[in-house]
Write a structure and sequence with these properties.
InterPro entries: SPMAP2-like, THEG. One of its GO terms (biological process) is spermatogenesis. The protein contains 12 helices and 2 strands, in the order H-H-H-H-H-H-E-E-H-H-H-H-H-H. It is mainly α. It has a two-stranded antiparallel ribbon. The longest helix is centred in the N-terminal third of the chain and has 11 residues, at about 1-10.
Length: about 250
């Protein structure tokens, strides 16, 4: 029992604050460190390292860098003005001709005399005839134009008792009930029914005979005024140390 009591005492102690814990800022305008102060001359002097000073210098231009041309007009050299083209250059400069070029055909074509007097062969006449097709909705067809008649064995076939029983429609369940209509008719028994004494007692609203007209629910009782908190309750009611702050005067 003593061990349990000591364990409870340990658990009852408040949690200790970590030594590296830092309190929250009391204001967003607070700073962690003081700003740099001006020197004796009235100006702020910052000491930089050699590396920072080297990086602050502008980058040198490459020796092979070519600047933009000052104007889009190029001057033709005298040598280019007096130059003469070779035979190959003159040959390449000539316009290329295309001998097989044909103009677009007109929308109205003329039938030649040979086409007018041509005679067709027997094969073309057979191909030109329309194909005889039976109405697909009257005859059972496997594909377009291919009939599939019923065989004699299928016409004389007889079904078994099992197949005949499976072909019968399924009967509804014996306890099946259709959907109830939207409008229900109240029975005569329900209209003439009388509530029992117990139902009448339960249907009454709760009586408040004990409440007086001058009753005030916000009045504190005398027992609550004289009550004193225990030491443990006072200890738990105190704020945490890190949350305590002095009031500004």
């Amino acid at each position: 029992m003593a061990t349990a009591t000591r364990r409870i005492d340990v658990l009852a102690k408040p949690k200790s604050v970590h030594p590296e814990h830092s309190d929250d800022r009391r204001s967003v305008y607070w700073i962690d460190r003081k700003p740099i102060q001006p020197g004796p001359g009235g100006t702020t002097k910052i000491v930089i390292t050699g590396r920072v000073e080297e990086l602050s210098k502008s980058k040198d231009v490459n020796k092979e860098y070519v600047y933009h041309r000052p104007t889009p007009i190029w001057e033709v050299k005298p040598g280019a003005l007096k130059a003469t083209a070779s035979g190959r250059v003159e040959q390449l400069s000539l316009h290329k001709t295309y001998n097989r070029h044909q103009m677009e055909r007109p929308p109205h074509t003329t039938v030649t005399e040979a086409a007018k007097s041509a005679n067709i062969t027997d094969r073309l006449e057979n191909l030109a005839k329309p194909k005889n097709r039976i109405d697909r909705f009257e005859v059972n067809e496997k594909e377009w134009g291919e009939t599939q008649p019923v065989s004699e064995a299928a016409k004389k076939a007889r079904i078994t008792e099992r197949v005949e029983s499976l072909a019968e429609p399924k009967q509804p369940h014996s306890q099946f009930q259709p959907a109830k209509p939207i409008m229900w008719e109240v029975s005569d028994l329900a209209i003439k029914a009388l509530a029992s004494l117990r139902l009448q007692q339960l249907s009454r609203p709760r009586s408040r005979t004990m409440i007086k007209d001058d009753y005030d629910p916000y009045v504190v009782s005398r027992a609550a005024r004289k009550a004193k908190a225990t030491g443990r309750v006072e200890e738990l009611s105190e704020p945490i140390e890190r949350k305590k702050r002095d009031k500004k005067v």
